[in-house]
Amino acid sequence: MDTDVLIGGGGIVGCSLAYFLAREGTDTLVIDRFDLNTQASGTNAGSLHVQMMSFFAMEGDWERYARLEAKLPLYLAGGRMWRELERELGFEVEVKSGGGLMVAETDDQLRFLEKKVAGERRLGLTSGVVTGAELKNLAPYLSDAVIGADFCPDEGKVNPLIATPAIARAAANADAVFRRGTALLGLTREKQGFAATTSGGPIRCRRVANAAGPDMGAVAAMVGLAYPTESLVLHMNATEPAAPFLPHLVQHANERLTLKQVANGNLLVGGGWPAVVDPATGQPSVVRTSVEGNLWVAQHLVPEMAHLRLIRTWAGVMEFSDVVNPIYGEAPEVPGFFNAQASAGYTAGPFCAHVLADVMGGRNEDGDAVRIALAQNAD
Fold it and tell me: In which domain, by residue range, is 33 found?
C-alpha cells in the first residue's frame, strides 16, 4: 500500500490524529498489531485529570512534581477539547465535567492541598479548598474521616470504551484507512519517505506518526532514535451498578486513588496501584494485594460502597516520558518521522493530536512539542 501518513498505533492519540488529518483530506493509514483501543487507551478508566495529582509529592519527588505542575494548562486544554470533540462527533461518549475532589484526612494533608491550590491558581485553574459544611453539602457521600478537599470544577470523565471507537468511525468516514492485526516490523528511510515492513505486507509512506503508546520506544528505535521512557503496569476495578450518588472524580492527597461513577452506575476504582506482566503470557495481570488495598481506600472514603460487589478487575501498561513531558512533533534527526506520545494520554490525547495535525498540515509550522505555550495561555 501507498499512503501519505502511516500512523502506528490505534489508541486515542492515533485515532484522533487520523480523524484530524483525514478530515483535512490527508491520505492516512492506521495500523495496530492488535485491535483499536486494546492497550493503554482501552485499559484506563477515562478520568479527565485537570488538577495536579499528588503521587510525586507523596513520594517526595518534588522536582518531578514541579515539572508536572507546569503542564497543568495542557490538561485544562485537553478537557476543553473533549467537550468540543463530543459536540463535533454528534455522538455521546459520556463526557461529564462534574468536577474533581482531592480529599484530605489530616491537617498536614490539608496544608498540602492549600499549597497545591495556590500553584494551580497561578497557572489559570479554577480550584479551591472546601471544608466543613461546604464540603458536606458538595459531597455528602464522603465519610467523616475527610476534613477537607481541593475542588476543581473542570475535572471530569469520559468513557474510553466508546470514545476511541467513535473517533475511529469518524476518521473512517473521512476516508482514513484502518488495518487491525497488523504489526509494524521495521522502517527503512527512503528518498521520498519510508518503507514499512508489516505483518500485513509492505507499506510505503511519505510520513510516519509514532502513536504506539507502550511500544513507542521500539518504533522510534527502528529509525535510530532513543527516547527515555518508563512503563507502569497498573490495575483498575469496577463494581456492580448502583443508583447515581457520586458525581465527582475523587482522589486522595496521600493515597493512590481515583474513584468515579459512570453513566450506567458502575463505580470505577483505580489510582496507580501496581499490577504485573504475566511471564507466561506476556499480558498484564492484576495483583490481589493491590486490588484489596485500592478497594479499602475507596470504601474508607465512601462508605456507600460497602454493599457493592466487585465484578471486574483488569490491568494495562502505561508509557511515560521520564522527563514528564510529551514526546511530540517531528524528530529533527529523521525528517518526516513524527512522535505522538502524550503525558496523561487520555485527557490530553485528542488535544495533542489536533496540535500535531496542524503541524503536519503546515498550519503551525513553528509549533514546538505540543505547543505548550499555547496551552499555558489558553483561556
Answer: 2-42+161-228+323-376
Q: Is residue 171 part of a domain?
A: yes
Each residue's pLDDT tens digit, 58-105? 666 667 677 777 778 888 889 999 999 999 999 999 999 899 999 999
Please report whether residue 192 resides in a domain.
Answer: yes
Query: Do residue 221 and residue 106 come from a single domain?
Result: no
Q: What is the CATH number of the domain that holds 357?
A: 3.50.50.60
- What is the rounded distance in angstroms from the CA atom of residue 292 to the CA atom of residue 88? 40
Give residue-wise pLDDT tens across range 149-200.
999 999 999 999 999 999 999 999 999 999 999 999 999 999 999 999 999 9
The count of domains in the chain is: 2
Residue 305 and residue 252 share a domain = yes
User: What CATH number corresponds to the domain at position 147?
Assistant: 3.30.9.10
pTM of the complete model beyond 0.70: yes
Confidence of residue 374 (pLDDT cuts 50, 70, 90): very low
